[in-house]
Amino acid sequence: MKWRILIFTLLLCMAPAALAQSVGGLAKGEELPTLYELTAHSELVVTARVLSGQVKLAQVEVGEVFRGDVRAGQRLQIAFRDLNLDLNKQDRVAFIDGETEILFLLPEVNWEGVRKGDDRYTLYRGRFGKVTLPREGDEIYLEALRVFAALTAEKDHRKLYAQIRGMLGSPNPILAETGLKETLRLDLMDRSLLPVVLSYLQDPAPGRRSQALKLLSSLFRSLKPGEFSDEDVQDALSRVLLVARNDPIEPARLAAVEALGSWSGEEVLPTLEVVADQDAAQGVRFEAKVILLRRGQASKKNQKPVDSQRQP
Q1: Structural domains of the chain sorted by starting position, each given as residue range(s) with its CATH number in brackets
Q2: Rounded distance, CA 208 to CA 218, Å?
Q3: How far is CA 182 from CA 34, 240, 278, in A?
Q4: What is the Cα 125 distance to its own chain's centre?
Q5: At residue 20, what are phi and psi to the nearest 5 degrees?
Q6: b/e map of 97-129 (b: 16 or more CB within 10 Å)?
Q7: How far apart (Å, rounded) are the C-alpha atoms in residues 98 and 191?
Q8: Residues 125-172: pLDDT tens digits?
């Protein structure tokens, strides 16, 4: 029993990193595509067993179909070798016989845009369109893909947004991380999500801690003056203050400092001053100093000018 708990804990931290085996092919500042993004933009999403990866077109047999018009057991041909012309050795796409892959596919077409064959496909986003299904913990990927396929089919935006918010707190780490990212991207954060978002400040994965802090930053920016004294908001602020000073991971501390920069009250200034002076990471210190500088400039602008000609 203990070894199963250990494996699941490791999966919580590592599962979303399956796409991050290498980062070639990304533009500067561009993030790795998520499984949800890949699902939403692919015409065909399947698991498939590699029958032969040694020929010009990889031969695969479809397992589970998440999106698209094929059937389990159908054989497909995947064009991939041209992708390797622009990739270094580390990033090259390879199909290993017997492996099970998650494939995000588009129909292969010629230079005129005509399909080359009903069974011929290419990888969406190049090498990012192929994710090897792990031998341990594969169910978390399959569950996530089933959910993502259902989301892409949802036409009612209100239901879609509710389902995205509902992924927060999921025990499936892929669903949880996607929920955090999409809630931020779609600006869905509100005070009703505070309890679940705050729970991620203790998450073992630094990425999920950072995403939760970005959501708190979004909430802090939206607060009206009368809401700053509310107990739930003050609790959120106190937790962010602790993360800014104590989290062992630099990106999480940086996200916490940015969240403090979104808070308009002066309660955050002492912590920002300490961080600006003492944090171990230059980037975190710099961000804290920039926020303090902006606060100082804003304070000067808000001061009323003194009439030097007025007699006492």
Answers
A1: 33-138 (2.40.50.140), 192-301 (1.25.10.10)
A2: 15
A3: 10, 21, 34
A4: 17
A5: -105, 30
A6: eebbbbbbbebbeeeeeeeeeeebbbbbbbbbb
A7: 48
A8: 998 999 999 888 899 999 999 999 999 999 999 999 999 999 999 999
